[in-house]
Design brief:
single chain, 267 residues, mainly alpha, 8 helices, 2 strands, 60% helix, elongated
Length: 267
């Protein structure tokens, strides 16, 4: 015989634990809403940062002011990113900065990549890893791991820019002479220095997953440097045989089947 379902009456529930569990329910609802807002903002920041990078790839020379159109596009997107960061600042205040760090990490890394790439094209130097230098709003946590991983990705953009300029002009992008060097440094020398610094990073004692991420990005970074080196070698050895506007074939650069070209970030 089927049971008879009695109608729910609120006054029948008299458990003293109900107010406590209702509080837990409200806190969980707030947590999920907050996490969704941060995750959506992170994706939007990532999209805007990628568009900045695409725009910066059109910069004709380094260590010179950006053309007005490129400057306007990047400035507008930076304002949009700043607004996105400010919109979630209350959600990542205090301990929540660490609680939701994983949800925001991807957007911060992509923004670091865009900001670092822009800074390099303007000054041929890298910015210091501080929130003030990178124009992050106060209250947004910038961890060492996010800065390092974003810097790893910047090498890929430097590789693309160097090969594109090599194909267009027949030479590597070169900046102004510095106090540390006798003449002007080219981009290949800079990314080789970056490779040497990255290879000295020791993450053996890290237990938060940074070592695993660094290991993956290390291989991609080395491949990017090798691609620029091979493009330069091709240009020097066989440059006179190449028509104007020639772009190196990735299969000729590192060889198919060697695994060196796997994992390179493409858009």
């Amino acid at each position: 015989m089927a049971g008879i379902k009695r109608p729910y009456k609120e006054e029948e529930i008299s458990s003293p634990y109900m107010p406590m569990f209702e509080t837990f329910r409200d806190e969980l609802d707030q947590h999920h809403d907050r996490r969704d807002r941060i995750g959506k903002a992170s994706k939007d920041i990532t999209a805007q940062s990628k568009k900045i990078i695409f725009t910066l790839q059109r910069v004709p020379t380094i260590c010179t002011p950006f053309p007005p159109k490129i400057l306007q596009e990047t400035t507008e997107r930076l304002h949009a990113i700043s607004a996105l960061f400010h919109s979630i600042t209350p959600d990542v205040a205090g301990l929540n900065a660490w609680r939701y760090q994983r949800q925001l990490s991807g957007g911060i890394q992509e923004y670091i990549e865009a900001a670092t790439f822009s800074h390099y094209l303007s000054t041929q130097t890298l910015p210091y890893p501080t929130a003030a230098t990178l124009r992050l709003p106060e209250g947004v946590l910038l961890t060492e791991s996010d800065f390092l991983l974003g810097l790893f990705d910047t090498v890929g953009e430097l590789m693309r820019y160097a090969i594109t300029m090599l194909a267009r002009t027949g030479r590597l992008p070169t900046g102004l002479p510095s106090k540390e060097s006798v003449g002007a440094r080219d981009m290949l020398a800079d990314i080789r220095d970056l490779r040497a610094c990255f290879e000295g990073v020791d993450t053996a004692g890290d237990s938060g997953g940074l070592g695993r991420d660094v290991e993956k990005k290390m291989g991609v970074m080395k491949t990017c440097v090798e691609k620029v080196e091979m493009a330069v070698y091709e240009m020097i050895v066989r440059g006179r045989e190449r028509p104007k506007g020639w772009v190196p074939d990735s299969r000729e650069e590192v060889g198919v089947g060697q695994g060196l070209g796997q994992g390179v970030e493409i858009y």
